[in-house]
Design brief:
Elements (H helix, E strand, L loop, with lengths): L1 H19 L30 H12 L5 H13 L16 H15 L6 H15 L13 H16 L6 H14 L6 H16 L8 H18 L4 H15 L4 H10 L6 H8 L8 H13 L4 H13 L9 H14 L4 H4 L8 H16 L10
Helix pairs in contact: 1-14, 2-4, 3-4, 4-6, 5-6, 6-7, 6-9, 7-9, 7-10, 8-10, 9-11, 11-13, 13-15, 14-15, 15-17
């Protein structure tokens, strides 16, 4: 944390000059995962039933400032109920939040391709299915999103069967294996037909969430993104899906985000997202997912975000539209940098755009209250 503070304090001293002196360079960053405040979070002091703590739990499970082995360890503890706030007995409506955390923990294992967790998840899925059948007042432990657990298990088993991906054909074979593991007896084309029917049915229901087939597509999309970063031709692996969805008129924004990010070299990803943010006109799946990606990458992205916000303050007239990209970057900075971001946020609380002003003031309040932002847990 000390390195972060030193860099930010030095930068803060030059912020006012930067508004008017365009040639003043930013100090070089000393940010690294080892100095991240996120490493000081304590799983046993974070209550999943508290929405503000829940946002910090997501950092423990997702942020790369936490070594992957540690994130996997945290995921196991949440799934097994081995944490201080674990609940037994009848749950209040608020305590059902524990089920969300378990879902996020399962996602951590799936996105890490942690095949060693398959037997545990199979065992827990049986328990959760049994618990789900009880009336809410008779449940004695939280239940995660079961369809997501099924999709995650299908992914992990397919990774176990086909551990190495070198070509688009390998990815398609993985998808076919995933379909087998959710007991879908048909081709990819037949699954796509079923997927579009599922999406159309969901869209006719208020607040309807994605079904099993769409969740499976999300998991496949995430693997496409990972494979793209390793140089695999993911466009070929996604062509049949994209063509079918286009013909049917169905949209799956998260799948498109995965494809878009998978085509950017991983070492250039943070800079690409920060630059892209200047074009965002709303905060939907695309912007939320890209903001989540920045937070997942950890404090190493803070200098890029900081520099872009300083540039934006100096060239405010060049940023057209809603300014929602500025808002997203401010919230990323608050989440990763905390109170040291206050001097940079302050000018935006007086921005010409009422929405930027509103969200900048909210970001300032979050810092003062010790909160962090939550972007796209589903990503």
């Amino acid at each position: 944390m000390r390195t972060i503070v030193i860099w930010l304090v030095a930068t803060v001293a030059s912020v006012n000059l930067l508004w008017t002196q365009q040639e003043t360079p930013l100090p070089k960053s000393g940010f690294s995962p080892e100095t991240s405040w996120i490493r000081n979070l304590d799983i046993d002091k974070l209550d999943p039933a508290n929405i503000d703590d829940y946002s910090k739990i997501l950092l423990l499970l997702r942020c790369e400032d936490i070594p992957q082995a540690k994130r996997i360890q945290y995921a196991y503890r949440y799934i097994r109920g081995e944490y201080a706030f674990a609940k037994e007995g009848a749950l209040s409506h608020k305590e059902e939040m524990h089920g969300l955390v378990i879902t996020d923990a399962v996602q951590t294992l799936a996105h890490s391709n942690h095949v060693e967790s398959i037997s545990l998840l199979e065992e827990k899925l049986q328990q959760w299915e049994s618990m789900r059948q009880r009336p809410p007042e008779q449940r004695t432990s939280p239940v995660p999103w079961l369809n997501y657990v099924r999709a995650a298990l299908a992914r992990l088993k397919a990774v176990r069967d086909i551990p190495e991906i070198k070509t688009a054909s390998d990815l398609r074979r993985r998808l076919e294996r995933m379909l087998q593991y959710i007991n879908f007896n048909g081709s990819i084309a037949q699954w796509l037909e079923a997927l579009t029917r599922e999406i159309e049915a969901r869209q006719s229901i208020d607040h309807g969430g994605p079904g099993l087939y769409e969740l499976l597509l999300w998991e496949y999309g995430h693997q496409l993104m990972q494979s793209g970063w390793r140089g695999v031709d993911i466009e070929a692996a996604a062509k049949e899906i994209r063509d079918y969805l286009k013909r049917s008129g169905c949209q799956v924004p998260l799948f498109e985000v995965y494809l878009e990010l998978g085509k950017i070299p991983r070492e250039k990803l943070a800079q690409w997202i920060v630059d892209d943010a200047m074009n965002w006109q709303g905060i939907g799946t695309f912007a939320e997912s890209k903001s989540q990606m920045l937070v997942d990458l950890g404090v190493s992205v803070v200098p890029l975000v900081w520099e872009k916000l300083v540039w934006a303050a100096r060239h405010r007239d060049q940023i057209k539209g809603t300014g929602m990209g500025l808002v997203a970057l401010l919230e990323v900075l608050v989440t990763l940098g905390g109170e040291q971001a206050l001097p940079l946020i302050e000018p935006f609380t007086r921005d010409e755009n009422e929405w930027v002003r509103y969200y900048a003031c909210r970001a300032k309040e979050y810092i003062q209250q010790g909160k962090v932002f939550r972007f796209a847990p589903y990503f």
